[in-house]
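quick q for whoever's on today - can somebody do inverse folding on this one?? i tried earlier but teh output was garbage lol. tokens:
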């Protein structure tokens, strides 16, 4: 591992929004020298530097070169997503007999909270010094009716970079009116390092015996389908690219993997969700969550147009996402775990990314 470092949070200016609002950048450093740099614009994880097998730190998340670049064009690199992560069919849902209309911003559907979701707002930031490691508390209050959603929603997302080389995200939310909530982080990972050509040689294991197949617009059909004997079986490790071009209707419609997996075990308990490994660098990432699902996405829509932090264009499949979540379109699928939050209740979820070095997965 890297040499010992002083735990702490360093703050510096990151730029200004068009209206003059100042945006800051916070670098969390743990005692191992691991660094997570986060901005209060969208709660974006701008960089995450972890050691490879030689102890060399390298940035393993995709991102844009500057704040202006994030504002102009960002396919959700590293951001906090809400009020509802993933898709809602046809931009509408009914709650307590009232139909709420949302922005249609992904084909015929609503995606990731709308035109100005939580990924595009300024969060109130508070650096933390905890026994576990440095942290950053981000707070945002979404007004009743914002992006079409009911209820004033008060959200806190707390990043903690533990001295055990874990990036932990704790989400808490309350509301003054019945609403729907589904919060996640949308980091794109490449364990070979930011700017590496592809993630297809990464090994992946998902602790998920079922997934939610989708229609041609990426909305779940409602079925929970067994992964056995399909290209979606990652119960034992496989290369991400091994079956990504399989002659499978779900693979074809998604242009690769862009599907919600049903995590085994009891939702609400922090449990193993995924393991990803790069044989080239020896980096191992383990994901644990309390959520019922995880969206595995293989950067199918990256096309080389956007430039990354190191000046290289991001080609197709140069990053992968593991978005811990409730299932897509849950407000319109009564059989799915509920995403309804009522006054007096507290929404709480936790996701943890644990980093280490290994010889294999």
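ok took a stab at it. sequence:
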């Amino acid at each position: 591992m890297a040499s010992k470092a002083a735990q702490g949070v360093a703050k510096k200016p990151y730029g200004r929004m068009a209206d003059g609002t100042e945006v800051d950048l916070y670098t969390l450093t743990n005692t191992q020298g691991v660094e997570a740099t986060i901005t209060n614009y969208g709660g974006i994880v701008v960089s995450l530097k972890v050691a490879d097998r030689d102890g060399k730190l390298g940035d393993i998340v995709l991102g844009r070169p500057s704040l202006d670049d994030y504002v102009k064009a960002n396919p959700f690199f590293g951001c906090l997503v809400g009020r509802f992560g993933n898709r809602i069919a046809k931009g509408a849902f009914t709650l307590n007999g009232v139909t709420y209309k949302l922005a249609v911003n992904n084909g015929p559907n609503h995606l990731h909270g709308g035109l100005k979701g939580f990924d595009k707002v300024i969060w109130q930031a508070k650096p933390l010094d905890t026994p576990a490691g440095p942290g950053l508390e981000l707070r945002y209050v979404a007004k009743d009716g914002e992006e079409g959603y009911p209820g004033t929603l008060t959200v806190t997302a707390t990043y903690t970079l533990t001295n055990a080389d874990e990036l932990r995200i704790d989400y808490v939310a309350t509301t003054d009116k019945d609403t729907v909530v589904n919060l996640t982080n949308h980091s794109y990972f490449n364990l070979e390092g930011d700017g590496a050509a592809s993630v297809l040689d990464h090994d992946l294991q998902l602790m998920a015996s079922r997934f939610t197949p989708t229609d041609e617009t990426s909305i779940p059909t409602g079925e929970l389908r067994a992964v056995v004997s399909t290209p979606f079986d990652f119960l034992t490790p496989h290369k991400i690219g091994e079956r990504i071009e399989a002659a499978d209707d779900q693979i074809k419609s998604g242009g690769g993997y862009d599907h919600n997996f049903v995590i085994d075990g009891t939702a609400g308990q922090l449990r193993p969700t995924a393991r990803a490994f790069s044989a080239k660098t020896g980096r191992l990432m383990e994901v644990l969550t309390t959520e019922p699902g995880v969206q595995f996405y293989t950067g199918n829509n990256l096309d080389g147009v956007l430039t990354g932090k190191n000046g290289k264009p991001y080609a197709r499949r140069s990053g992968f996402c593991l978005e811990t979540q409730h299932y897509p379109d849950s407000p319109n699928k009564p059989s799915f775990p509920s995403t309804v939050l009522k006054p007096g209740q507290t929404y709480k979820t936790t996701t943890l990314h644990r980093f280490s070095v290994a010889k294999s997965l």
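fwiw The mean pLDDT is 97. also The radius of gyration is 19 Å. so keep that in mind when u check it
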